[in-house]
Amino acid sequence: MKSYKDLDIYTIGMELFYKTHSLSMQLPKYELYELGSQIRRSSDSVVTNIVEGYGRRRYKNDFIKFLVYSHASNLETLNHIEKIVNLYPYLADDIKMLYEGYDVLGAKIFSFLKYVEEHWKI
């Protein structure tokens, strides 16, 4: 692994971030700076924490800490998606696909986190 870009969790997270950002812009104007901003920030945090953790990979505990942050941001994003599904049913079909993607990503982040805890060596 030469770069964080080689991590499956990073590439999936970035793809989901771009889709989430685009979809959030379809929310009503009054939600763009409320729920829209929250989901954009949490989805960005998923990948940003992977990158920052990778940058600190020499320090196993720091790497783990940032992967935990990434997983927590993933859960936050899932929560925002649930709100959008219930508040804006016209977005439900598109946003449910995002939910499935973030659900899979959360499992992958968790698995990678366990791998780092048990097997990571500098």
UniProtKB/TrEMBL annotation:
- Extract the InterPro entries matched here: 23S_rRNA-intervening_sequence (IPR012657), 23S_rRNA_IVS_sf (IPR036583)
* SUPFAM superfamilies assigned: IVS-encoded protein-like (SSF158446)
Q: What is this protein called?
A: Four helix bundle protein
